[in-house]
Amino acid sequence: MDLERIVFRKIELWVVGLLLVMAAIGMLVFGAIVYDTTSGKARFGKLGEVAVLIAKTPWTFEKVVNEDNRVQSTDPNRFDGAGGWRIRQEGLPEDISGYLLLSRHDGDQSRHVIELYDLTDLSLVHQWWPDVEMLLADARRDWNWMDYTAWRREAWRAIHPLLFGNGDLVVKDHYAPLIRISACGDRVWMKDDVHYHHSSEFDGEGGFWIPTLAARSDLPGTEDWYLEDTLTRLSPEGDVLFQRSLAKVFIKSGLYHRLFSASLHANDPFHLNDIEPVLEDGKFWRKGDLFLSIRRYSTILQYRPSTDEIVWMKEGPWMDQHDVDILGETTIAVFNNNVINTGTGEKVRDVSEVLFYDFETDTVSSPFRKTMETYGIKTLTEGLVDFLPSGHLLLEEENAGRLMLFSSDGEFIASFINNSAKGLGYRMGWSRYIPDALGAQAATALENHDCEQNL
Q1: Which of 7, 69, 302, 408 is placed for a possible disulfide with 312 were both Cys, Cβ 3.0 to 4.6 Å?
Q2: Is 221 left (phi over 0), alpha (psi -120 to 50) or beta?
């Protein structure tokens, strides 16, 4: 009865008005704290961080509820049976050498794993199980658009890991801190100064190139959410050796309209997804040049850091491509996602494929097209290819959770299906071919590590 009396007690109108005014003021103050923190001023310290977390609660809840969408393949039931290697009846060819660094989400362990395989017999050499919750425990959390729900074992992915000769890896998720880990997964160093994303490639001189994003663009007139892609070269110790804003390269080259056209403005004007360093001179490039894959406008370009100029650029016929590789002295290969949007949403047009562009003849060909059609290769986003010295093609169909190995004439050799024991497919993490010398050196070093993996 007392509770009923309290619930239905009459309240003076002026009290209701006062409460509404106080609520409105509280909302304004809360909004001001959130804006101050996300704009980079952070004058409210921990209070601002808490306010931002509260403001993100609806989206955080949605992402956690939809966790499977982050790590499961786009069609989890596409491939039957448990995951693992599937090899042609004739077995592996004798001319394959080197190693495979396989990066994938393990559906049985509900976390990401990186595995080193010997390609001569597909035997497992070593596994890394990075514990991201420990590795990023003290990483900064004041970025205004970071998805911190991905910083959990169940959600984090190791995108395009780099392998060092001592068994260390450099790993990161998309738009996240960069970490070097030991053979046993312990942190060697971490960089959380900017956002690191997409590809990681050795420069041939001990360092490596990686796309980054300025934590806050300093281009005049841009807002907090404007993504300014940057070309960054790092040493094995994580020291910055070179850094250049791609946007500023475009502006210097008279391409301002590609960044700020009123009718086509986007906060992500490039979406740089691969930096491929040139390791030796060719007929159409010099050692030290960079080939860049820019998803927006479906562009591949050649940039020369020594002179800060765009040497060559071509839009299409690739569509929303990922990954560019150098083949010989006159040809590059492009992994073409072949994604279109006619107004009804994004979709792969027929199949994703591998295109060759010949600089000498200015022609584009698709030598593996029949193979792509036969095996239904489709990945709306991500995906990559590597060419082995023997001519074999290693292709990661990232969204589908499948890695495939073909001969130089497109014949199937083997595949890795990233299914769980229950037969559900999970996504990959940008696997790569490891040359024989580096792989053997790392394998020898890894033999001396007895790691107690925390599963």
Answers
A1: 302
A2: left
